Amino acid sequence: MDKIEVEGVNDLKGNIQISGSKNSSLPILASSLLIDEEIVISNVPNLSDVIFMIKILKSLDSEVNFKNSICKIKSNQPHDLKVSYELVRKMRASFLILGPLLTKYGYAEVSLPGGCAIGTRPVDLHISALEKMGAEFIVKDGYIKGKVKGRLKGCEITLKKISVGATENIIMAGTLAEGETIIKNAACEPEISDLSNFLNNAGAEIRGHGTNIIKINGKKKLRGCQFSVMPDRIEAGTFALCVMGCSGNLILENVNDLICNHLKKIFKPLNVLSLNKNDSGDKLEIKKTNQFQQNIIISTKEFPGFPTDLQAQLIASMTKSSGKSVIKENIFENRFMHVSELRRMGANLKQKGSKIIINGVKEIYGAEVMATDLRASSSLIIAGLMASGKTIINRVYHLDRGYENLEEKLRNCGVKIRRFSE
Ligand code: UD1
């Protein structure tokens, strides 16, 4: 199994190309099942989650060619509308194929995703919405089996909790449903707008994406199209937090205006970084200008709030701050697997329910640590950059799910980092 060794303490300097968004690519790839003609998607990151989604599409008889960030897909009527446990257990986002299969083919069998390192993560919102649209489900042998008589029917769905995945599944189902589907209390994440823009290019009629009321007018058929995936705001935010934890000056390239403004907004209360975008908004310069203040309180929230996907990296970057701060996780229960590993590096972190209390220390120290999930892994990389000595991170396959060429990108900014296997 691969491990990564990072040497601290770092002062980061250089330019980093931000890759295409993982959380946008995955639903867009899943939605290819809705379209018979060829689609060409560019700026797709080469990540194990993306390769995994491609495996699922191929198991459903799609022809996929993925090279140099361009993914060409021609979907065909699948010979078997089943996605096995073997495929679903590795990636929860596999569940995103349920909406497309049901609305296009009227049947789907998908293994129920189990728990994962960041909590129980149920799928009840996806199921109840699709039921309201006319699908019938039974659970048998660990699989959810759904069928539809005729076409799914558009209706009004109010999500009782904001869910990115459920919003995406309903949007995809709605594109080929009969009549209008209205989602209230929908997620507003930019990745949902990216999926909607892609589907609109393919002839769908989706309005209101980016707000909490989304309306989808069902069509009989979608057509082939080309689309470029938005940049990854979580990757960009992770590099900003590398600068926050260490010091330095990074220029993030291939970002966009929305991401620049989002990062400026979420990091503003910390008052540590200066973030300056160029006129077109595709470059963002990040500099550490101040030391951390005391008594900072940050809570994770749905977009446009502080993303849960940056919570672990934020905690790592604050381990050497002065004084006491509090980070509250509001989206997932039990998303604190990184905390015990950071403690092993000398961080002073206390958990009180859904809060982590950080008492800043002068120094943290390199150690051998274990990655437990994707974002926990990147928090350990940040801690490794900040720690005295060498940090060895085990189970880096978690990192490969969501960060493209991470070591190379950091090496280009002066970091001593290497991957090895034992
Ligand atoms: C997506 C992102 C993930 C991010 C998360 C929250 C992708 C591929 N993944 O995950 O990186 O951390 O949004 O921004 O885009 N919930 C239910 N019932 C459901 C569905 C969700 O109770 O049927 C709960 C979840 O347990 C969680 C909350 O709703 O507490 C939000 O989860 P959701 O937005 O659905 O996350 P994902 O779409 O799985």
Give the helices and strands, then pairings:
Elements: E1 2-8, E2 12-17, H1 22-31, E3 39-42, H2 48-59, E4 63-67, E5 70-74, E6 82-83, H3 85-88, H4 98-105, E7 107-111, H5 124-132, E8 135-140, E9 143-148, E10 156-158, H6 164-175, E11 180-184, H7 190-201, E12 205-207, E13 213-217, E14 226-228, H8 233-245, E15 248-253, H9 257-267, E16 273-277, E17 283-288, E18 297-299, H10 311-317, E19 324-328, H11 337-344, E20 348-352, E21 355-359, E22 368-370, H12 374-386, E23 389-394, H13 397-400, H14 406-411, E24 417-421
Parallel strand pairs: 2-15, 3-14, 6-7, 10-11, 18-19, 22-23
Antiparallel strand pairs: 1-23, 1-24, 3-5, 4-5, 7-9, 8-9, 11-13, 12-13, 15-17, 16-17, 19-21, 20-21
Helix pairs in contact: 1-2, 1-7, 4-6, 5-6, 6-7, 8-10, 8-12, 10-12, 11-12
The chain binds uridine-diphosphate-N-acetylglucosamine (UD1).
Uridine-diphosphate-N-acetylglucosamine binds next to helix 1, helix 5 and helix 6.
Plain-language structure description:
This protein is of the alpha/beta class and 422 residues long. It has two domains: 2-19 and 231-421, UDP-n-acetylglucosamine1-carboxyvinyl-transferase, Chain (Alpha-beta prism), CATH 3.65.10.10; 22-228, UDP-n-acetylglucosamine1-carboxyvinyl-transferase, Chain, CATH 3.65.10. The protein is built from 14 helices and 24 strands. The protein has helices spanning 22-31, 48-59, 85-88, 98-105, 124-132, 164-175, 190-201, 233-245, 257-267, 311-317, 337-344, 374-386, 397-400, 406-411; strands at 2-8, 12-17, 39-42, 63-67, 70-74, 82-83, 107-111, 135-140, 143-148, 156-158, 180-184, 205-207, 213-217, 226-228, 248-253, 273-277, 283-288, 297-299, 324-328, 348-352, 355-359, 368-370, 389-394, 417-421. The strands form six sheets. Strands 22-23-1-24 form a four-stranded mixed β-sheet. A four-stranded mixed β-sheet has the order 2-15-17-16, with helices on one face. The protein has a four-stranded mixed β-sheet with strand order 4-5-3-14, covered by helices on one side. Helix 10 (311-317) links the parallel strand 18 and strand 19. Helix 5 (124-132) packs parallel to helix 6 (164-175) and helix 8 runs parallel beside helix 10 (311-317). The longest helix has 13 residues, at 233-245. The chain is elongated and about 65 Å long. The mean pLDDT is 94. The site of uridine-diphosphate-N-acetylglucosamine has 21 residues, from helix 1, helix 5 and helix 6. Uridine-diphosphate-N-acetylglucosamine (UD1) binds at residues 23, 26, 92-93, 121-126, 161, 163-166, 187, 191, 308-309, 331-332.
